[in-house]
Amino acid sequence: MRTYRKNKTPQESSRAIGLDIALKVVSFITGKEHLHYGYWKGLDVNLENLGKAQEAYTKHLFKYLPKKEPRKKLKILDIGGGSGQIAKYLIDLGHQVTIVIPSSTLVKHARINTNGKAEIHQTTFEQYNPRKNTKFDLCLYAESFQYIPVKIALRKATQLLNKNGEILIADCFRSAKEHTGIFRKPGGGPSLASMESEIKIQKLEIINQEEITEAVAPSIELEQQFYNTIGFSINRVIHSLKIIRPMSLRFLGILYKLLLSKRRRLRLEDRLFEKRRSKDLFLKYNHYMIFKLKPLRE
Question: pTM of the entire structure?
Answer without folding.
Answer: 0.82
